[in-house]
Amino acid sequence: MSGTRNTGRFDLKAIAAALPDAAETLLVDTYLTDREAASARVFRVYKPTPPHYHATCDEYLYVLSGRGTF
Question: Are 5 and 32 a contacting pair, CB within 8 Å?
């Protein structure tokens, strides 16, 4: 058995709480995993974001707090 970890658990509330209260950028994020085939991240949005989509990937958006329009 190799020492490579293939699974993990994340405390999403703690990760989100560690993001800054304000930012000059549209969003600040923390990657949980970043692989060629897929990635997962927690991000906080600081400015209004127009509806949009990403044509080259499938996405799941889980709103931890606040609101989102799908």
Answer: no
- pLDDT tens by residue, 13-64: 999 999 999 999 999 999 998 888 888 999 999 998 888 888 888 888 888 8
Quick check: pTM over 0.85? no
In a domain, 4, yes or no: no
Is 63 domain-assigned? yes
C-alpha to C-alpha distance for 45 and 6, rounded to whole angstroms: 29
If you search the block for the tokens 């707090």, which residue do you land on? 65
Q: How many domains does the chain have?
A: 1
For residue 1, is it within any domain?
no
Task: Measure the CA–CA gap between 30 and 43, rounded to whole angstroms.
Answer: 6
- For 68, which DSSP code? -
Structural domain span for residue 65: 9-69
